[in-house]
Amino acid sequence: MEIPLFPLHSILFPGGALPLRIFESRYIDLVSRCLREESGFGICMIRQGQEVGEAADVYDYGTYARIGYFEQLDNGLLGITMRGETRFRIQRTWVESNSLLMGEVSLLPDEVSQALAPEHQPLSELLHQIIDRLGPPYSTLPASYDDAAWVSQRLTELLPFDPELKQYFLQLDEPSQRLERMLAILSRT
Prior knowledge:
By secondary structure, this protein is α+β, with helices and mostly antiparallel strands.
């Protein structure tokens, strides 16, 4: 599957929301095309480079996402909210003439829901507090505070972990491993 890639210093999982402000012409064109074709694009963590200007080098794993909401902002920028759908692994990338990064990707299986272990309950409570404070679009997501996959994915998106650690968490297929590592990190801080 060939898709456009959107390099960011943020991460998105399936089922998550990511608000973006669009101002570069290559991404305005991309958003227009996605709305017209009812398609999406890949959100990828930047390994090296910047979010603006030349196409950045990205990690091999990302999330295919679709536009859930868009609006023209008061400052003239385009505001969109992406909804994560499916994780993928990049097989190869190339840069189009307009500096848009493209990728050939393989979609990964969805994570299986699993009950949250009792020792991970404090992480679920922390997530609930964070989402209550953030409000929309996060508070409008279908919540599943008793699902280890959902809790670990949302915490990865929202907590200020090091980017490489966030990428590691995206690549993990086991939610309980994510939660164990988070618990260890948070207990030290």
